[in-house]
C-alpha cells in the first residue's frame, strides 16, 4: 500500500517538473536566438492555434482508483472478488483477480485467508471460483434436484446456482413441471415437484384439520379471507356481480332438477339385466 502511494507522489512531482520545463522552453529560445526575420513570421504558428501543453495525467485517475480499492476494508475487497467470481463463474488465479478487479490478494493476507474460508468461494490451491449451495448448470439438472425434494426446496437456496436459474424456474412452472408457492412464515418461495410419481405423505392431523374446516358460503367472504392471508384470489366476485347487474343477468342460484326414480311406466332398455332395476 505504501509503495503505491510513494510511486503516485513521485509521478505527480515528475508531472510538475515536466510542465515547468515545457513552459520555460519557448521564452528561453526567443531570448538566445534573437528576433526572427519578417519572412519567418508567416512560418511561425499562431499563438491562438498552438496545441495545449502536454499533460502527464492520463493514468492518474486509474492509479488513484486502484489505491482506493486496496485501502478499502477487508470486507469490501472480499465482496468485490466474490462479485467477480459470481458474475463470470470461472476460476481465477490471484494474479488474474488483481488484474481484473485490482484486489491484490497476495499482498493482503487477511483478504487471502478470508476468501479461502468463505462459504461461497472454492479454492483448489491455485485458483478461486464461486461455490453455490447446489452445483447445477442447466434447467434439466434443476428439475432433477427439485424432484428429489417432494416436501419442497427453498428458492433462496437455488438463486445462485447459475446465472439464468430464476428464468428456468419460471419456465418449469409455466410448463407445469413444478409448483412455486409462498411460505407464510418466512415469506419465501418454495419449489415443489409436480410429478405424479412422487408419493407425498400427509399427516392424519392435517387431514383432520382440513376436513373440519368450514368455508364461507359466499365467495366474497372467501376472497376476503384469502387477501387477509396474503394471497391473491383468482376470482373477483364483486366485479362479476356488478357486471351481471348492469346486463340484467340474474344471480339467483340454479335449482337442481329432481331426479326421476324408475317406475313401472319407465321404459327399460336393458331388459337383459333385470337385477339392476329391482325396487
TrEMBL record:
It comes from the Eukaryota. One of its GO terms (cellular component) is transcription factor TFIIE complex. It is found in: Nucleus. The keyword DNA-binding applies. The keyword ATP-binding does not apply. One of its GO terms (biological process) is transcription initiation at RNA polymerase II promoter. InterPro entries: TFA2_Winged_2, TFIIE-bsu, TFIIE_bsu_DNA-bd. Its main location: nucleus. Residues 26-48, 229-279 are annotated as: Disordered. It holds the Pfam family TFA2_Winged_2. Residues 253-270 have a biased composition (Basic residues). Recruits TFIIH to the initiation complex and stimulates the RNA polymerase II C-terminal domain kinase and DNA-dependent ATPase activities of TFIIH. Both TFIIH and TFIIE are required for promoter clearance by RNA polymerase. This is General transcription factor.
